[in-house]
Amino acid sequence: MSCGLEDYELDILDTLFSRRCFTHKSSFNLLRVCKGYQRQFGREIVDVAKKLSDEGYITQKKKSDPKYYISDYDKTREALRLHEHGVIAGRIRHL
Questions:
Q1: Which candidate among 10, 35, 65, 80 keeps its CA 20 to 30 Å from the CA of 91?
Q2: DSSP for residue 34
Q3: What does the alpha-carbon distance between residue 83 and residue 7 come to, in Å, rounded to a whole number?
Q4: Whole-number pLDDT of residue 58
Q5: CB 66, CB 21: distance < 8 Å
């Protein structure tokens, strides 16, 4: 991969990006999609989220249940765009 991320990591970033989780007020509990994620990729979602957190893509909200949000919008958007996920580079203004 050109940015160093695997498909299972990009799936988590795409989930957070599509749910517009860009601040601590709009964080998402990744354990909600844990069962389907493990079935599809065979990985623990908490371990993958920790790796993405260490690389600076996402940040965990300090709560009893782990909620995450995107901490580096530009870095995440560029990684998703390089791997041809449906990410818009900016605002679209209709004429």
A1: 10
A2: H
A3: 9
A4: 92
A5: no
Residue 8 identity: Y
Of 12-26, 28-42, 77-91, where does mean pLDDT reach its minimum? 77-91
**Domains annotated on the chain, with CATH:** 7-82 (1.10.10.10)
Q: What share of the chain is helix, strand, coil (3-state, %, to 5)?
A: 50, 10, 40
Report which of 60, 77, 59, 55 is spatially closest to residue 4, judged by C-alpha positions: 55
Rounded mean pLDDT, 53-69: 87
Q: Which two tokens stand for residue 63?
A: 């709560």
Give, to the nearest 10 degrees, the angle between helix 73-82 and helix 7-18: 120
Structure-token match 């765009």, residue found: 81
